[in-house]
UniProtKB/TrEMBL annotation:
PANTHER family: ACETYLTRANSFERASE (PTHR43300), UDP-N-ACETYLBACILLOSAMINE N-ACETYLTRANSFERASE (PTHR43300:SF7). Pfam families: Hexapep, PglD_N. This is Sialic acid O-acetyltransferase NeuD family sugar O-acyltransferase. Acetyl-CoA binds at residue 153. It comes from Odoribacter laneus YIT 12061. Residues 4-70 form the PglD N-terminal domain. Belongs to the transferase hexapeptide repeat family. Keywords: Acyltransferase, Transferase. Substrate binds at residue 77. Coiled coil: none annotated.
Length: 220
């Protein structure tokens, strides 16, 4: 039976989530999810789907429907604000949609918490733990025994080597790599095409190979 999902966000991450659902339907005959529309404070439609309300309307949809929600807001470099909006939305775990592209490999003993999104051609290794509402974009390699906190974002082609960690609401940008046993701190970020050879402290952005401190993230 199709479950109805509202995507929270815009055409960036939200549009990617919609395209995953569409592709699972079209090429893999997988009709687990049906898109009702988007929640967005600024637009009237996103990628051809109606915007059915602003962020403040989430509670009404929780109370009056059985719709699920896919959280697609992840503001790069403004991770504290992202987490604040997520907490305010207060979507219970049993109403979060877990959406995985059919071409992704997910080891059977990996733990995928509610609300996770995994796009095409990703690999998630054995005993990996992926926190709620984390976004794993196409071609990302998520190694064995990694620990990813809630609300993280792995951009296209990012790599977490085995036993590495990501703190809550942290980012690894396009084409970046965390070496084994290293940690990206809470609300921190590893920049595009960068290599984390050391732990990155909470709230800091590091770039380059090996990655060095660039600046702190905005804490608004
Ligand atoms: C980390 C990041 C946010 C920094 O962006 P920024 O704050 O706008 O930084 P700037 O472009 O002003 O660059 C500041 C300096 O850092 C350097 N720098 C920025 N990003 C770098 C990177 N990834 N690797 C190496 N050096 C980098 C710049 O060359 C510049 O150096 P300079 O002062 O010597 O000229 C950006 O590099 C990044 O990774 N963005 C995320 C991309 C992504 O994955 N988006 C999601 C996909 S849709």
């Amino acid at each position: 039976m199709k479950k109805k999902v509202i995507i929270v966000g815009g055409e960036g991450n939200g549009g990617v989530i919609a395209s995953c659902i569409e592709d699972n339907q079209k090429r893999y005959n997988d009709y687990e999810w049906e898109i009702v529309g988007f929640i967005n404070d600024f637009e009237e439609q996103v990628c051809g789907y109606p915007v059915i309300g602003p962020l403040s309307s989430i509670k009404r949809f929780l109370d009056t429907t059985d719709y699920y929600f896919s959280w697609g807001i992840h503001l790069v470099g403004r991770n504290v604000l992202t987490e604040k909006m997520y907490r305010e939305a207060n979507i219970p775990k049993n109403r979060l949609a877990t959406i995985i592209h059919k071409s992704a490999f997910v080891a059977k003993n990996a733990i995928i918490e509610p609300g996770v999104f995994i796009m095409a051609n990703c690999y998630v290794g054995p005993q990996a733990i992926i926190g709620s509402s984390s976004l794993i974009m196409a071609n990302s390699m998520i190694g064995h025994n990694i620990e990813m906190g809630e609300l993280c974002h792995c951009s296209v082609g990012a790599i977490m080597t085995g036993y590495s960690k990501m703190g809550i609401c942290s980012d690894i940008a396009v084409g970046s790599t965390i070496l084994a046993y290293k940690k990206i701190g809470a609300f921190a970020m590893l920049g595009a095409a960068s290599l984390a050879t050391h732990d990155i402290p909470d709230y800091e952005i590091h770039v380059g190979s090996p990655a060095k401190f660039l600046k702190r993230i905005k804490e608004d």
